[in-house]
# Entry
Amino acid sequence: MHPLLHPQPSNETHPVSDFNPESTSAGLSAFEQEVRRIAAAPERFAHPRRPFTARGSFVERCTGCRLPTQSCICTYRTPVDAGVEFWVLMHIEEVNKPTNTARLIGDTLPSTRVFAWQRTQPPQALLEALQDPRYYPLIIFPDDQADYQHRVTSWPQVEAKLEGRIPVFLLLDGTWRQARKMFRQSAYLQDLPVLPVHSERTTRYQLRKPASEQHLCTAEVGIALLEMAAQTEAAQVLEQYFTVFNEGYGAARRQASADLNQAQAWLLAYQAQQAQA
# Structure
């Protein structure tokens, strides 16, 4: 039996960076620019943050990718088109976390959109997008509870119902506890079909201790979804970009070196190939 994957693993506790969201937007993906706009919005500070004193609070970071400067991955950001789209409903506490992997999806797939989740303020832009007849939105969530089994679907069933619409994978981006709260407490999500992801993948994410090897981070869920939808090229690009991010950042935390030559070379070769096309 395939393992059950969660859009974001339980017990995930990443530090929040003191990165300045008003820094330059030159060269940033549209997704990252929107995340920084959300981070700088007045409502972001309705509930003051606790002082950040965890490991990494004084690390000098790249103003683009937010990684430690010695692990900057900006050179390897490689946009690619796909026949599906991702919409990320991001918990407001996620916007300043440099270890957030939804950004990797946004960097790789330019059509990716991000919306801020707050319990009492539904994102108007998402409400409007959900009504757009061009799209077929699916909320990515486990199929482990009886009360919403009538909403659970599979990719073959989705393909049979598309009728020319663009499939959209709606990811709930937060800790597992936050994701479940977002799923349960957002009335505007209650009629969406639920697409669980079953895969043989085990997590390679180094920046947290997973409760289970089957608990994938958001970027890994994105890769699995692209593979499921037969978007092989986009899945490969995101996989290599995730490798550079994951192993490079992990090595920086351990103050060790990482052999990323293969993933880096793959992305640079792909970029060169696309430039010549």
Observations:
- The chain has a mean pLDDT of 83.
- DSSP finds eight helices and five strands in the chain.
- The beta strands are 85-91, 113-117, 135-140, 166-173, 194-195.
